[in-house]
Amino acid sequence: MKQPARAKPSAPKAETGRPSGSAARQDETKPARAVAASVAKSPAKHASDKPAPGKPETEAPQGTAEAQAAAPLPPPLPTYSSGAPPSGPVPMRRDTHPSIPPRQPSKPVEFKAGDHVVYPTHGVGTVQGIEAMSAAGLTLQVIVVTFDENRMTLRVPVNKAASSGLRKLAAPDSMQEALDTLKGRARIKRTMWSRRAQEYEAKINSGDPVAIAEVVRDLHRNAGQPDQSFSERQIYEQAMDRLAAELAAIDRTDKAAATTKLLDHLKAG
């Protein structure tokens, strides 16, 4: 009886999914290269970043940068122009404007009824007397001054008379200086008329007879000189009227006679 033929064992088939030879060695080096590349890209940790022994390494809590940014900054250091701080203590900042010395109170002038006085912006007036006037629950002593030409009455507090510019008539020496000023040569600045007009008006409102005489001298026109403009004529007549009114009160004459006297001094110059 014949025995069945045994099947020959087939040769083991090569596994297609696993590389063999040099290809397998190249695949084994790929993970190592990838790990090295990732290590090279990641920033190296400082030695001080190592966790303490016995404690696991943890990531930095979120919001640390925001907390540091919100923390108050230290005050800036002072700077010095010379580059080096002064040896002594740094002085505190103060106002650089010099302190204005207090105005010394002027000697009070006594006014009585019938006195001729000069107020800078209104000219020559007459004192009618001193009255008591109540204002804001206080009682004030005021000087009552009337101006006949303007038909105006002015009340000036006694304690404010000097600061407001109210004064008595000029002394004879001051008026003589004003008359001598009229004989001088006119001094006209080469500036715009608007600026010169402001200066002339300021001199007139100052109440100083010498300053008013300068305005009359500079704006006066003799025969043969160019005529005045309308604004020049107005300022000239205002200055002449102020000076003539005070001169008439000093000489105890009328304004027409005082004006004639002023014109004579102008022509003599």
Topology of helices and strands:
Elements: H1 22-41, H2 64-70, E1 116-119, E2 123-135, E3 138-147, E4 152-157, H3 161-164, E5 167-168, H4 172-182, H5 193-206, H6 209-219, H7 230-251, H8 255-268
Antiparallel strand pairs: 1-2, 1-5, 2-3, 3-4
Word description of this protein:
The chain is an alpha+beta fold and 269 residues long. The protein has eight helices and five strands, in the order ααββββαβααααα. Helices cover 38% and strands 13% of the residues. Strand 1 and strand 2 form a beta hairpin. The radius of gyration is 52 Å and the shape is globular. The termini are far apart.
- Overall pLDDT, averaged? 74
Low-confidence stretches: 42-49, 54-61, 93-105
Proportion in β-strands: 5-15%
Could you say which overall geometry the principal axes of the C-alpha atoms support?
Answer: globular
Main sheet, how many strands, which sense, barrel?
A: 5 strands, antiparallel
- Strand order in space, largest sheet: 4-3-2-1-5
| Number of strand segments | 5
